[in-house]
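Raw record, unedited: OsmC family peroxiredoxin
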Amino acid sequence: MTNQITTKWLGNMAFESNNPSGHNLTIDIAPEDGGDGTGYRPKALMLSSLAGCSGLDVASLIKKMKLDVEDFKIETIANLTDEHPKYYDKVSIEYHFTGKNLDEKKLQRAVDLSVEKYCGVMEMFRKFATLEIKTFFNNK
């Protein structure tokens, strides 16, 4: 299976990229770097892809396991190298669950399954970065 997207220059430093979902997104850089700041930054999008991919896995498992979770968020903190080409060499992925009746063991299992087995974007990140996984349970 292959994926193909088209990314079209909009002028100055902005691009529009399509997606198989039918939604388009704009990519741009900050005004101080010569752009107009009208879109997403490419490297930050990589972090959103990582969190989104893993988050979808965990959300699917939350549904399958019928777990009671009021709130779920993923914080992704990445270190960018100093030298060009700049890339993420260390990435911390924090899973935050909030609720009254959190089943911590099953939620940790959901995170582990995503991290170790299901998330393809996580596997891609492993090729160039050291990953640190943390899970936080906020019982109300």
